[in-house]
Write a structure and sequence with these properties.
The protein has a single domain, classed as TIM Barrel (Alpha-Beta Barrel). The chain is 40% helix and 19% strand. It has nine helices and twelve strands. It has an eight-stranded parallel sheet. A two-stranded antiparallel ribbon has the order 2-3. Helix 3 runs parallel beside helix 4. The two termini are 18 Å apart. 45% of the residues are buried.
């Protein structure tokens, strides 16, 4: 795990990849962000494959986050991640079949935990139950977990702090990170990473897309 939480820039808004994702990446590829990703919806498969390949050619670590809940949909998302040569698959409900695809293709698998529904996704569940569920996946080959901390219907700060302190694998706090207060909360944990997508498109950090990325990276380094 890194010493500070890593920013994963998601070229997404409302849990779907933006249509101009390639153009945005082109404008921002020289920013300080090392991790880049998008969702399985919003682009054609050919566009996904082209964009992920270009990201990797720019020495980025690539992430596909799949918002899917049935095994069939989750398998399709995992296969897309494999076919597009992504480094990390985030999201999906955990299934052994999805884990197997990731293992076979050298992809780091970070499934959702808790009861996740809807799109944009919402997280429900008792904190202790969410932790126990995550622990049950330790021996199934997962790399870490996609924690929708700020999409939680309960106390987000309590969930993030408790889950990240108790779980021994990397945790990415994903979704609705849209303020410096939330960045401060994430900094106070040992989270491996966090995602920002919609907040950059909505100019929550004040500046061009590229300027906002660098602001967040610098802020997390202070």
């Amino acid at each position: 795990m890194s010493e500070k939480p890593e920013l994963i820039v998601m070229l997404t808004q409302d849990d779907r990849t933006v249509k101009n994702a390639c153009e945005v990446f082109e404008q921002c590829k020289n920013t300080k962000a090392k991790f880049w990703g998008f969702k399985e919806e919003g682009l054609t498969f050919a566009q996904m494959k082209e964009l992920s390949a270009y990201m990797k050619s720019c020495d980025k670590t690539t992430v596909l986050e799949v918002v899917a809940y049935t095994e069939k949909e989750c398998i399709a998302g995992a296969q897309a991640a494999a076919d597009c040569n992504f480094d990390i698959l985030m999201g999906t409900v955990f299934f052994d079949s999805v884990s197997d695809i990731c293992k076979e293709n050298g992809i780091k698998y970070m499934p959702f935990v808790g009861k996740v529904t809807q799109r944009p996704s919402v997280l429900e569940g008792n904190i202790e139950d969410i932790i126990r569920q995550a622990e049950s996946y330790y021996d199934k080959g997962v790399y870490g977990f996609d924690l929708l901390g700020y999409r939680y219907t309960g106390d987000s700060k309590e969930l993030n702090n408790k889950f990240i302190s108790d779980i021994r694998l990397p945790v990415c706090v994903a979704g609705s990170v849209d303020s410096y207060q939330k960045l401060d909360e994430i900094k106070s944990t040992s989270a491996w990473a966090f995602t920002i997508g919609s907040a950059f498109f909505e100019n929550k950090f004040d500046g061009t897309f590229a300027e906002q990325i660098n602001k967040v990276c610098d802020y997390m380094n202070t």
